[in-house]
Amino acid sequence: MDFTFKEEQQQFADALRRWIDKDYGFEARRKIIHSDAGVSDAAWSQLVELGMTALPVPEAQGGFDGSAVDMMVVMQELGRGLVVEPYFATMLGAQFLKLAGGQEALLEQVASGSLKLACALGEQQSRYDLADVATMASPSHTITGTKTVVVHGGQAGAFIVSARTRGAQREREGIALYVVQRDAAGVTVTDYRTLDGQRAATVRFDGAQATPLRGGWDVLEAAADYGNTLLCAEAIGAMDAIFAATLEYLKTRKQFGVPIGQFQALQHRMADMFIHLEQARSMAMLAAVKVSSDDAEERRRVASAAKVRVGQAAKFVGQQAVQLHGGMGVTDELPAAHHFKRLTMIGLTLGDVDHHLERFAHEPGFTAGQ
User: Is the pLDDT reported for residue 28 higher than 60?
Assistant: First the structure.
């Protein structure tokens, strides 16, 4: 499979990498995550200036109408650079708006960088089942309920919220989508830092007024698959970085008077890491190509297969990197430790390996005779 990006895509990636190397290095990032805000307004402004927020937005709303493959280029660099700004949450929210349609004004704000979004989908009891929704929506479009682990919920100006209008708690029928403004009456946000340095929030809605979006479960599922595609791309960037750091360490760390990279056993482990990484890269690219497919069954299969393979690779590559670095592999001072934490959190976002393996197995055609 050809992983060569187009010239303009590579230029986009190069511009983003230059900014990260110059202004968003490891020490700069540590200062940001330990600040009260946990994010940087200056960094967000730079992402806007580079055109990152406009990339997936339709041209009619001031964007570049970028594809999922274009977004893969960006997410890889953000993963490599451990960027903690609310980019993923906002772009996932923008995908909801695009799929629902009729939200041109909000998309224009996203493209300009003036609006950050967060997707309030999960609940305390739901784990990875996005259909397990207890939050209720009234006929007058008021929302009551609590959403948990809302990625960058504390930094958002508006929320994409799943709520139930009818049906039992785990039924897909009756799920509707809404936009709720952060400053709406009845919205309470509790912000906190996660183990990978990102931010998340518990968001409580007490009769908060909402704007309904078109579409229900179908839009929710399609947007979640798109989100998983972005996460897979970010994981590839993080694994690229952790692999390169481990290889460099093996070349410089000496034992018995020679670099430990000369030991054949460690060379074999690096080869295994490389194989896992390249297989994951193949699946991430396939997901980026297929996530916009008109065939919903194909989209679901590929998105879940990618999340499974990337999740397996992330665990293997991360664990091997920590072991090959020795005790320092888990220290806060080493970027590899932070990459491993981020890879772990990616694996737990929008469904882990077991969840997507089960989802893949339940898709038509998996069992012989279907």
Answer: yes
